[in-house]
TrEMBL record:
It holds the Pfam family tRNA_anti_2. Heterooligomer composed of large and small subunits. This is Exodeoxyribonuclease 7 large subunit. Its EC number is 3.1.11.6. The gene is xseA.
């Protein structure tokens, strides 16, 4: 019996062989695997996604290359239940088998629904849905962004023409479905703002499936609407349909027709309001005129109009009384001032040196006219001037006699 000599393989040869076995197995070339995402990694530069799929008992590694990730409508997250379609093969470098994913769908909830919620959370966290602008009460120009062939544009134009024909309508036709719709809608909003050719914008379309309405859930549309300095009314689908555009807009309308009603006032209501204002104005004018007439009648019946001369005599009498009282007060005030002046003059005169001289006294002055306060300052033969009350006497000193000081003056106790 011949025995087969075993072959010695390199690691690479072994992994390559195992890989070929996997790839030749028809059960592994296309499989659908349900599991929960874990260890998710998104390599943004390459576009590849790396993750693991697990259930209660097992885990398998998986990779999704960039050429397949471009078709994803949502961003995978850890903990998300998904169904993956792909093939099972071996990565030769590590000898590890893994799932090569070609398509990925949420398990139980549609990809578009998840993408909607993910984008909504992202933009809400940025504050994109926060501040809302006021819709003008009487817009002069209304911008309409929708399909030229749908029922929405007909409904909008009909309602605007019926409610407020004074407004000018600026229409910008765009695609509202398909891959070209979102860029066209965003560009139309930016163009209206750039040209500043509307006071309010209506953006929307009629009803449809989630796929049909999806352009209004694109991030580019939401950011263009939120950045608009012109107030935007979103009118997408029917009353139960909600889009990201609705949250980014300044006002959400349940239908395109309702958007037109919210954008402009009703001319019939305005006419009724004007009639009411006119009536109230007329009543106010009549009330003012009636009050003025009663006031004139009261003034006409007053004494000043019936006998104005008597009224003037009364005023003259009052003025005369005030004048007499003022003159009396001024006379008493002047007399009081004279009395005070005489008293103060007498006191000043009593202190005047001239009053002393008038009683027979004289003041001795030196040749410079300065008073001499002591005999010790005078010398024999010195020239003096004696100042009297009615003139001066010039004299020469013949002798100086000093008076002896008393003991008290000398400081002896």
């Amino acid at each position: 019996m011949n025995r087969i000599t075993p072959m010695v393989l390199s690691v690479t040869q072994l992994n390559t062989y195992i890989r070929s076995v996997f790839e030749q197995d028809p059960h592994l070339t296309q499989v659908f695997v349900s599991g929960e995402i874990s260890n998710f990694k998104n390599y943004y530069r390459s576009g590849h996604l790396y993750l693991s799929l697990k259930d209660e008992k097992s885990v398998i590694k998986a990779v999704m290359f960039a050429r397949y990730t471009e078709r994803l409508r949502f961003v995978p997250e850890d903990g998300m239940k998904v169904i993956a379609r792909g093939r099972v093969s071996v990565y030769e470098a590590t000898g590890q088998y893994q799932l090569y994913i070609e398509d990925l769908q949420p398990d139980g909830v549609g990809a578009l629904s998840i993408a909607f919620e993910q984008l909504k959370r992202k933009l809400e966290a940025e504050g994109l849905f926060g501040k809302k602008k006021q819709i003008p009460k009487y817009p002069e120009r209304i911008g309409v962004i929708t399909s030229p062939s749908g029922a929405a544009v007909h409904d909008i134009l009909t309602v605007l023409g019926r409610r407020y024909p004074a407004a000018e309508i600026v229409f910008c036709p765009v695609a509202v479905q398909g891959t070209e719709a979102a860029p066209q809608i965003a560009d139309a909003v930016e163009r209206f703002n750039r040209l500043n050719c509307a006071d309010v914008l209506i953006v929307g379309r009629g009803g449809g499936s989630l796929e049909d309405l999806w352009p209004f859930n694109e991030e580019s549309v939401a950011r263009a609407v939120a950045a608009s300095h012109i107030p935007v009314i979103s009118a997408v689908g029917h009353e139960t349909d909600f889009t990201i555009c609705d949250f980014a807009a300044d006002l959400r309308a349940p239908t395109p027709s309702a958007a037109a009603e919210l954008a402009v006032p009703d001319r019939m209501e305005l006419a009724a309001e004007l009639r009411g204002m006119r009536q109230r104005l007329n009543q106010a004018i009549e009330s003012v005129l009636s009050d003025a007439g009663r006031r004139i009648d009261q003034l006409s019946d007053s004494g000043v109009f019936r006998n104005p001369a008597e009224r003037l005599e009364q005023r003259k009498q009052v003025i005369t009384q005030f004048s007499s009282a003022l003159n009396g007060h001024m006379s008493r005030k002047i007399q009081s001032c004279h009395t005070i002046l005489s008293s103060e003059s007498g006191r000043l005169n009593a202190l005047s040196p001239l009053a002393v001289l008038s009683r027979g006294y004289a003041v001795a002055c030196d040749e410079n006219g300065s008073p001499i306060g002591s005999a010790s300052k005078v010398r024999k033969g010195e020239f003096l001037s004696m100042k009297m009350n009615d003139g001066n006497i010039d004299c020469v000193v013949e002798n100086v006699r000093m008076r002896k000081k008393k003991r008290s003056e000398a400081g002896v106790l």
